[in-house]
Every structure is written in structure tokens, then in C-alpha cells.
Amino acid sequence: MAAIIGWAHTPFGKLADETVETLVTKVAKQAIADAGLAAEDIDEIVLGHFNAGFSKQDFTASLVLQADDNLRFKPTTRVENACATGSAAVHQGVKSIKAGDAKFVLVVGVEQMTTTPGPEIGANLLKASYLPEDGDTPAGFAGVFGKIAGMYFQKHGDQSEALAHIAAKNHKNGVENPYAQMRKDLGVEFCLNESEKNPFVAGPLKRTDCSLVSDGAAAIVLTDTTTALSAKKAVAFRGLGHAQDFLPMSKRDILKFEGCTEAWKRALSMANITIEDLSFVETHDCFTIAELIEYEAMGLVPEGQGARAILEGWTQKDGKLPVNPSGGLKAKGHPIGATGVSMHALTAMQLTGEAGGIQVEGAELGGIFNMGGAAVANYVSVMQRLK
Predict the structure, then answer these.
(1) pLDDT tens readout for residues 273-305
(2) Spatial separation of the C-alpha atoms in residues 266 and 260, rounded to whole Å
(3) Which residue from 77, 367, 376, 346 is spatially nearest to 248, judged by alpha carbons?
(4) Is the pLDDT of residue 237 over 90?
(5) pTM to 2 decimal places
(6) Is 210 among the catalytic positions?
(7) For this structure, is 83 an active site residue?
(8) 171, 242, 284, 334: which is the annotated catalytic residue?
(9) How far apart, in Å, are the Cα atoms of 254 and each of 11, 250, 304, 373?
(10) Catalytic, out of 83, 210, 260, 286
(11) pLDDT digits over 138-153, tens only?
(12) Which residues of the chain form beta strands (DSSP E)?
């Protein structure tokens, strides 16, 4: 299998002085150095960059080479799979390692979203849905998940309290994450009640139910597990799962996130563990309703009982399965192409005891779920410290 031996992460947020190029080159240099390598040691580069109109520079793979002239002529590819773009890049890098095609792979994820005008942001994000059905959805992608939330409420009852607790948990966790865009403990009451600062955005979803528009980048360096044993630190992949579902929501039961369930099954099976064996999970809370349904899809609770996991404290940082100790997309931010790489970098930090204030005590096994579209692209990684 493969292992992560170095990583880098910019703060997420409104980074007006940065560009896609400066973000990419910054983390590329830092991750290579963190792995104890030089640019010439890298055999392959994979860049995760969604774009979809956020950057005028749309051909971005070779921007990574700007980090160091010694990266010139390295095989470099940009990959994209909506909001799971970062994990798509990571999994692609792992495949090259497993195939023996590369000894060291640099994986970078990046997005710059905040320089785009508001209406265009909504239009760009909506490109990750099935336009013949969802293209006219008010409030863009938030509207898509607002519809999902409304359907869930209709089937399983009002979940406003559970969603508020999810939002409050993630904001509380994000306070201690130095990379997080919003480091403020908002509390359950603020997240639960509609107000001028927390208006309804789409359906039953309020502003505190929606992830942030962000700029940022993250990078990791991959190698094989044998080589990783001689690195100063190493976090190995125990299991991987990728399940791609139909794009139209009309072709599936959107309240089940079946692709998420399948990806978790594959990764846990490969790792030969169960969900209960994990020390923590970083999951894709693009909207709080997504995290709620993901509790069910990953097998933590039965269908329709997602609220139990949060209301009974299971997913709190000190609960039986901490979910999003980083603050998640909700507090950390969600620069589309960077998110999946960020999840892997932060999980590596957790498992090597380098996570600072967001550290989960005694973390031994980490799970990652990164999702593109409304449960369309589904990626799971199970990670364990190698050394």
C-alpha cells in the first residue's frame, strides 16, 4: 500500500493576496521539505483543482512546477471530481505508488473562490449537480441540500435541533484549528434560532448549516510503506474505497447516501475493521444535513436515527467516535479542490500527535469521507500511523 510522509497546509479563508499559483507553490515546497526530500526526488505530481470558473487560468497542472525548477518534466496531471476532487487526487497518487510507477508522489489540492462575485459562486458550485434537473434551483447548491433536508424532515421529523448541535460542535472544534477560516464557538442557541446574522438560506437550512466559501491549499507526499519506514514520520493507508453514484437524484433515494455506504464498506473491508474501531472521522459536512445523513450511511446509527449520534454526544471530540475534530468544512472552510487533501493532511497530523489543540487523545485509526455533489463521488480512506 502507500503512506504519507510529509504534508503542508495553508490557512483557509479569504486570502486576497494569494493566487492559485502562489497557493500551489507554497504548499508544494513545504510538503516536499516536510518529507525530507528534494524536488528532484519527486516522481509524479497530481493536482486536485475543481475550478468550474473560479479561476481564469483553467490549465493548472503545470503551475505546481513553479515551486521548483527541478520539478520540470515530472509527469503531472490535474484531476477533478467535484467537491471530492482532493481525495480523487490522493487516491490517484496512491494508485501510482501501488502500481510501482512512482516512488514519491506529490499531491496538491487548491481552490480560490472568494475573488469570484457571489452570484457566480453559486452558478459555479451548481455545476456539481445534474443541471437538467437542478439547474434552476434557487440558492444554488445550498438549494439542492435544502431540498434534501426538507425531504428528510418530512420523512423523519424536524431535525433542526440535531443540525444546530452539529454546527455548534464543528464551530467549537474549529476554534483550536489554526488553519480554520472561522475560529468562533457560536453555541447551539445561535445555530438553532433564526436571526439577522443567521437567516434561512434554503429550505430548513440556515447560514450556520452551510460550509464557507474559501481559498486555500494543502499538499501531501506519498511513498510505499517500505520506503516510508525510513522516513521521519509515516501514516499508512489501511483501506480505500471509491464509489461513484448516478448524477441525477431522481435515479436514487437521496436520503440514503448509498454511494457513501458502499465506499465505507469497501474501505473498512480492506482495512479489516469496523466503524467502531476508528478513533475519529473527518467527514464531508458541506451542509449539516450531509453530516447527519453520513452518520447513518457510515453505519454509526440506523437509517433515520442520525440525530442520536449528535444529541447523545457520540460524535463530540470526547465522544465514542469524534467526527470532524478539525471543525470540518463548516468551520475550517471548503476550498473545493483542497478539501480532500486537507482531510488527509490533518488526519496524518492527528495520527502522529501533531494536531495541537484539535488533537484527539490516543488517536490510532482515522477515517476520512470526502464527497462530490450530492453523494455522487464518494471517497473513503482509513489511515494508521506507521511510525
Answers:
(1) 999 999 999 999 999 999 999 999 999 999 999
(2) 10
(3) 376
(4) yes
(5) 0.98
(6) no
(7) yes
(8) 334
(9) 33, 8, 13, 11
(10) 83
(11) 888 999 999 999 999 9
(12) 2-9, 44-48, 76-79, 104-112, 200-202, 205-206, 215-224, 235-244, 280-282, 365-372, 377-385
